[in-house]
Write a structure and sequence with these properties.
The chain crosses the membrane at residues 98-122. This protein has 142 residues and is mainly α. 80% of the residues lie in helices and 0% in strands.
């Protein structure tokens, strides 16, 4: 896949993320996102990246593109990669949403139980106090 190829080729050529970013006129975080498979470069940047790393675009993408000079072919490959990233991101967001809702429900149940049991405890304590007062009153009256 592109992200793994980019990282390996960058290291083989002895570039840091910062150095590669400077050559491409992007920020280091952009290179990091590409290597973490969070985004992909546009077609023009991909061509420049391949030239800097001295490899073909198809080698960088990890797939064969018949006519590497054709921006349309490169755009199609990038489109496929972007679709895969979008699917991965949607799954990730769904998972985090489910985790968040689950945690919220647990917290709400905990708060509800605390309120319910503290009200029960207060009620029991009040009854015990009244019983003690009643018993003291009976003892004093005798």
């Amino acid at each position: 896949m592109f992200s793994e190829n980019l990282k390996n080729l960058r290291k083989q050529n002895g570039f840091s993320q910062e150095e590669l970013a400077t050559r491409l006129h992007v920020v280091r975080q952009t290179i990091s996102k590409w290597e973490k498979n969070l985004s992909v470069p546009d077609a023009d940047t991909l061509i420049r990246l391949a030239e800097i790393l001295d490899v073909s675009v198809s080698e960088l993408l990890g797939a064969s593109v018949e006519n590497e000079k054709s921006a349309d072919d490169i755009a199609i490959q990038l489109s496929r990669i972007n679709e895969q990233l979008a699917i991965k991101n949607r799954r990730s967001r769904r998972i985090w949403k489910v985790v968040g809702i689950t945690l919220a429900v647990i917290v709400l149940l905990y708060v509800f139980m605390m309120v319910f049991f503290s009200a029960q405890y207060i009620s029991d304590t009040d009854q015990n106090k009244q019983q003690i007062i009643t018993e003291e009153t009976v003892i004093i009256d005798d």
